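Work Package 3 (structural annotation) set out to generate three-dimensional models for the target panel prioritized at the project kickoff. During this period the team completed the workflow that converts sequence records into discrete structure tokens, so that structures can be stored uniformly alongside our sequence database. As a representative example, we reproduce one entry of 191 residues exactly as it appears in the project archive.
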Amino acid sequence: MNRPDRHTAEQAVRTLIAWAGDDPDREGLRDTPARVIRAYSSFFSGYDQNPEHLLNTTFDEVQGYDEIVLVKNIRLESHCEHHMVPIIGLAHVAYLPSKRMVGISKLARVVDLFAKRLQTQEVLTLQIADAIERNLKTRGVAVVIEAAHMCMTTRGVRKTEAQTVTSCMRGKFRDDPDSRREVLALLQTRS
């Protein structure tokens, strides 16, 4: 897909301002198109990143560690692909290493990489699990996301306290009831 240039994108923002009923040439709005495009460059920076590059630095010498690695409460900021409004929540990511491990900050970066795209929470959950499973060759992956969708809390049904929870379990976390119970129990413990 060919991306429009910055000028075209800024013109689109000017059009939206006018459509909303305001004057894009008004002093307070004059620089808004450029600010919006800079913000969108940050919001959607995940399109410019590759999870394989992010997860390719691993550690083979793990001294036999083969238990759960879990990073909880990873702040998640994404945008709904249906309304382009924020999805704000927490991601919890766990895996059972096989022979390779990754630095734990990389798990948070994988969450950010996919969150910084237009998303549905269900697809976001799957993409995170797929990338970790595929690149680390894990024995199991668990991803749980809890989030509020501004498309539901600030418009439409306006259910301000609503949280959506999605999960994806792969490998032993899906197939072995004991492993599944263990990771779910760890998710319930207080940080």
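The chain has a mean pLDDT of 93.
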